[in-house]
Amino acid sequence: MMNQDFINTLLLTGKLAGWTTVILLVIGFPIAYLLAYRRFPLKVLVEALISMPMVLPPTVLGFYMLVVYSPQNAFGRFMAEYFDVRLAFSFEGILIASVIFSLPFMIQPLQNGLQAIPASLREASYTLGKSEFTTFVRVLVPNMTPSIITAVAMTFAHCIGEFGVVIMVGGNMPGETRVASIAIYDEVQALNFHTANQYSLVLFGISLVLLTLIFAIKRTPNP
Amino acid sequence: MKIETNIQTNTNSVPLQGPDSYREGVLSIFILHAMHTSEGKKMLEVNTEIMPQELMCLFGHSGAGKTTILRILAGLTKPDKGRIVFDGTVWFDSEKKINLPPQQRNVGYMFQDYALFPNMSIEKNICFAQKVKDEVEVEKLLVLFDLHSLRSRKPGQLSGGQKQRVALARALAAKPSLLMLDEPLSALDYEMRTALQDEIRKTHDLLQTITLMVSHDIPEVVQLATSVMVLRNGTVVNEGKPEEVFDQPPNPLKGE
Fold it and tell me: What is the pLDDT of residue B11?
């Protein structure tokens, strides 16, 4: 019963969530580090901005992303002229929007994880002559694996569940921006309840597995 | 502004140190620092010199500033004002804006919670501290602190006394030029304490440097220390050999 279209849509959904998670892991760690350990002016504002996607209607973010992507504006023009990338209604476009929209789901668990590590561990490493970077790699990261798994699972699950931003920024283009959540909407509109049900079951299953994983991690006592 | 006035009053009673002359192994400390405690703001004022190879105990009630002094010396807390010179090297000078980071001070710091790295085995904890990898040295330390049978265990699987031995071994592995112990024995029962006092003595003798140790246990201080600094609300109220300090009849600390 699985036709190629169905599989392609799910693969695209996984590709979007996967890339979003990888990119956020790379940029999320430095941000979480700064938020956890440094004091700087307007820190609360930065924290609030990062958390905005949790309360903001996805359409608001989607609308602003479209404005930013427009070749009439600096960023969109820059991407078009230098990289020949058109961001509106493209995979790259929904990827950037998705990274921004999932920011808090990556950063908050990482920040909490870093803050939960006793300060004495960092300080002990410093007094042993280790740099901040060595301390981060050898002492901090290995002692916050539950937080890292939570952050990755939350980000991935949230990405898969994304609808509003993708439809605003990406529309519904098969193989480019048509992810599972949008396909469900589309199939229901076309009265293809069977296909909608298939997509829904897959998303339901993945989300349940990921959230069960997160709760299982929270229950296991720290080593 | 408040700090300024404090310096003024301080200079009247205790003279500031004169120009540097290199004195091998001497730790000279001049600190003025506002501590923010649960009982409000307190000024920490210390002006002293510690001679080479001394094992000095910082003695006083909790909140007196003992740990803060160690943290300032290790470079973990930045004092408001002052000057710290060890073995001819300026570690901190508020006027010249010198503040060496902990990495460049080469101190061994044993935290109250021991701060062993939970992800590393006992052996790895000790290896991590070494500036140059030296497996023979690690073996020596494992034997010296009776940790050989525990080498592949994680810190979470150890008792308090075992953790303390690992922490001492790790501090030694870094070959520090100054050893600081923050209430190393407070979390242990009586028998363990007496056994581990010997370990501390051993560590101090091996390093042949200054050891600073926070304690509020008089027998322990008398047993171990070559000198004592008594702190009260951030001020040094007494300093000297343990016998002298604790035998003075009107002891302000015994009554409390």
Answer: 40
**From the first residue on, what is the mean pLDDT of each consecutive set of 10 residues in chain A (223 residues)?**
81 94 96 95 94 92 90 85 85 93 96 96 96 96 95 94 90 87 91 92 93 87 56
pLDDT of residue A129: 94
List, in sequence order, every residue forming a beta bridge with B44; answer none if it has no partner. Answer: B33
Of B102, B112, B128, the CB nearest to A127: B102
Closest residue, chain A, to B182 (C-alpha): A120
| Chain A nearest-CA residue for B171 | A128
Nearest to A129 among B106, B112, B119 (CB): B106
Q: Which residues pair with B213 in a beta bridge?
A: B57, B181
Q: Which residue of A lies nearest to B75 if distances are taken between CA atoms?
A: A127
HEC-encoded secondary structure of A57-109: CHHHHHHHHHHHHCCCCHHHHHHHHHHCCCCCCCHHHHHHHHHHHHHHHHHHH
The answer to whether A139 contacts B113, with C-beta atoms less than 8 Å apart, is: no
Contact A127 B109 (CB under 8 A): yes
Burial class (CB in 10 A: 0-12, 13-18, 19+), A152: buried
Q: What is the CATH number of the domain that holds A149?
A: 1.10.3720.10
CA separation for the pair B240, A136 (Å, rounded): 42
* CB contact at 8 A, A86 and A139: no
Dump pLDDT digits (tens) for B87-142.
999 999 999 999 999 999 999 999 999 999 999 999 999 999 998 899 999 999 99
The shortest CB-CB distance from B131 to any of A129, A138, A139 is to A129
Q: Answer whether B154 sits within 8 Å of A131, measured CB to CB.
A: no
> Which value does ipTM take for this structure?
0.85
Domain extent, residue A173, equals 4-219
Q: Which residues of B touch A131 (CB under 8 A)?
A: 103
Identify the three-state secondary structure at position B134.
Answer: coil
Q: Which of A37, A125, A127 to mutate to test the interface with B (most CBs of B within 10 A)?
A: A127
How far is the C-alpha of A210 from the C-alpha of B129, rounded, in Å?
38
Query: Which structure tokens are listed for B3?
Result: 């700090």
Residue identified by tokens 């790699």 is A137
Start-end of CATH 3.40.50.300 domains in chain B: 29-106+180-186+210-249
Which tokens hold the place of B148? 């050989």
> Distance (Å) from the C-alpha of residue B247 to the closest C-alpha of chain A?
36
Q: What's the total number of domains in chain A?
A: 1
Model confidence pTM above 0.90: no
The CATH number of B29-106+180-186+210-249 is: 3.40.50.300
- Closest partner CB to A130 (pick from B74, B103, B156): B103
d(CA A13, CA A160): 6
User: Are B69 and B46 spatial neighbours (Cβ–Cβ below 8 Å)?
Assistant: yes
